[in-house]
Amino acid sequence: MRSLFSILLFLLFFSRASGQVDSTKHLIDTLPENFYLLRTITRDGVALPEIEIKEVYIVGRARSARKFPYARYQRLIYNLKKVYPYALIVRGRLYEVNMKLTDITDEKERKKYLRQVEKDVFGEYEDDMLDMTITQGRLLIKLIDRETQNTSYELIQQYRGSFSASFWQFIARIFGADLKAEYDPLGEDALMERIVQEIEMGRL
Fold first, then answer.
1. 120 near 128, Cβ under 8 Å?
2. 98: containing domain
3. Model-level pTM?
4. How many domains does one find in the chain?
5. Which of 16, 7, 17 lies closest to 151 in space, CA to CA?
6. Residues 83, 88, 89, 94: is their CA dihedral positive or negative?
7. Is residue 26 part of a domain?
8. Most CB atoms closer than 10 Å: which of 11, 73, 134, 187?
9. What is the pLDDT of residues 39-72, one digit of tens each?
């Protein structure tokens, strides 16, 4: 199990620390950050206030003999809320690393920079990764593809070479994971996509 999380730690090598506070941000008035602006709409000669609300998903119990797996659904929500922030960290770090590498032309310096970033991230996120379950690790691999448009295998291949990518893929398969797994929001990952959208909107 520890090897699988070493893979995830490697992927988080693309990561930057989350939770940083922008000290330049200040409130300039007393309005709450979330408020609604009413507008007046006239229908059939009657003017009434109107507000646009967000789309709401209602999931009811199935009437067929096959019951909706609510326990598994709630577990999926729990797991996604735990690992989704790390997928965002990977996306942000990937951009940051790529921007930095455009300024480093010497191959030796590039490798030195990548080793240092990897060392820093291992120190920062090792405990978090080791605290994840195998299922959460698989979800994170899928979410990395969602956020970066690259599978975990492709990222390792790009930054470490084909041999490293094949090696880590072999280790991942031992634990029932697949670094080549692609995110399919319209197919097998449709429910996962709906939950992630709810998380993004702050409703979960």
1. no
2. 2-13+68-200
3. 0.67
4. 1
5. 7
6. positive
7. no
8. 11
9. 778 888 888 877 766 666 565 555 555 677 888 8
